[in-house]
């Protein structure tokens, strides 16, 4: 069994294997071949933060592979953690019932704590602003599928780069591939933490930090937009100040290459104008669909199958 806690635990070989498996899952998704791969297994999904795609795609992935699912979607109130039970004790109990445990929690490092006492694979479905490795995998899979390659790409991350855990999981993956150039586009208040900038500089990665989209757009192969993470702000007035500072508008699309793609982990709120959805370069719903195949592959990986 293998825990999936952080993008940083994987090497390039792991990535290639998991992407390949996901592509097999995509091809076999509707066939009988996969229906018994997780027969007699139980997957627990314990979510302390809201989720649509991550939880439901994990549950669908488990069901497609023949597993059964036990689930708590509002674990902050509906689990005994509400009464004060520790994550360690909760994990020990889940190990009595389930074969794999998917956890989302607002606190950084929670899944690592759980993994220390767990006899079953723990899968991090998002821990605070820290990591969201399974999203990183589905984002990588999407770029590969849409562009046919993972190197020689110009990629911009736009929006809330301070708190986006999906960026923190995708960026280390992309850095395994050669000649990728990065633009980090955000208001000052939401810029990428300096520790990441320092690391990129030390490693000689090509990158630029920008305050507006316009100049970068014509160069991009991938524009990865993010939601301003309201739930991470200490007070609402700080959120109100920045929530609408960064928006991809329909008029911007004329400056984007014909084969560029617009990605977003979703949910999107104000950061992408609705009309953008109808443009074929808007890849975010295709991206979410890919999450199913990638999470099928990741459940098999975690269970050592
Ligand atoms: C992301 C998350 O939870 O970090 N959502 C997701 O899992 N697709 C992004 C977000 O909530 O903004």
From TrEMBL:
EC class of the enzyme, as a word: transferase
SUPFAM superfamilies for the chain: Aspartate/ornithine carbamoyltransferase (SSF53671)
GO terms of molecular function: amino acid binding; aspartate carbamoyltransferase activity
Annotated Aspartate/ornithine carbamoyltransferase carbamoyl-P binding domain residues: 2-144
Annotated catalysed reactions: carbamoyl phosphate + L-aspartate = N-carbamoyl-L-aspartate + phosphate + H(+)
Highest taxon above the source species: Bacteria
Pathway the protein acts in: Pyrimidine metabolism; UMP biosynthesis via de novo pathway; (S)-dihydroorotate from bicarbonate: step 2/3
Keywords of the record: Pyrimidine biosynthesis, Transferase
EC number(s) stated in the UniProt entry for this protein: 2.1.3.2
Oligomer status and interactors: Heterododecamer (2C3:3R2) of six catalytic PyrB chains organized as two trimers (C3), and six regulatory PyrI chains organized as three dimers (R2).
Annotated PANTHER family: ASPARTATE CARBAMOYLTRANSFERASE, ORNITHINE CARBAMOYLTRANSFERASE, MITOCHONDRIAL
The protein's name in its UniProt record: Aspartate carbamoyltransferase
Organism expressing this protein natively: Candidatus Nomurabacteria bacterium RIFCSPHIGHO2_02_FULL_37_13
Lineage, highest ranks first: Bacteria, Candidatus Nomuraibacteriota
């Amino acid at each position: 069994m293998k825990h999936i806690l952080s993008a940083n635990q994987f090497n390039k070989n792991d990535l290639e294997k998991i992407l390949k498996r996901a592509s097999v899952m995509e091809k076999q998704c509707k066939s009988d071949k996969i229906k018994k791969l997780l027969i007699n297994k139980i997957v627990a999904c314990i979510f302390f933060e809201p989720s649509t795609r991550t939880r439901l795609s994990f549950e669908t992935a488990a069901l497609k592979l023949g597993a059964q699912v036990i689930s708590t979607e509002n674990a902050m109130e509906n689990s005994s953690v509400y009464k004060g039970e520790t994550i360690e004790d909760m994990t020990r109990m889940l190990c009595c019932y389930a074969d794999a445990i998917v956890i989302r929690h607002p606190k950084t490092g929670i899944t690592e704590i759980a993994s220390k006492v767990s006899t079953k694979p723990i899968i991090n479905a998002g821990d605070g602003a820290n990591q969201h490795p399974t999203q990183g995998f589905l984002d990588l899979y999407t770029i590969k599928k849409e562009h046919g390659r993972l190197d020689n790409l110009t990629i911009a991350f736009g929006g809330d780069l301070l708190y986006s855990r999906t960026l923190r999981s995708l960026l280390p993956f992309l850095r395994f591939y050669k000649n990728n150039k990065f633009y980090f586009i955000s208001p000052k208040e939401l810029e990428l933490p300096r520790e990441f900038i320092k690391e990129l500089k030390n490693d000689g990665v090509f990158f630029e930090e920008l305050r507006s989209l316009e100049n970068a757009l014509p160069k991009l192969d991938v524009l990865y937009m993010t939601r301003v993470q309201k739930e991470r702000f200490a007070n609402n007035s700080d959120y109100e100040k920045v929530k609408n500072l960064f928006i991809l508008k329909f008029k911007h699309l004329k400056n984007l290459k014909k084969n560029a793609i617009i990605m977003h982990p979703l949910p999107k709120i104000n950061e992408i104008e609705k009309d953008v959805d109808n443009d074929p370069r808007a890849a975010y719903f295709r991206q979410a669909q890919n999450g199913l195949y990638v999470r099928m592959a990741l459940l098999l990986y975690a269970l050592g199958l």
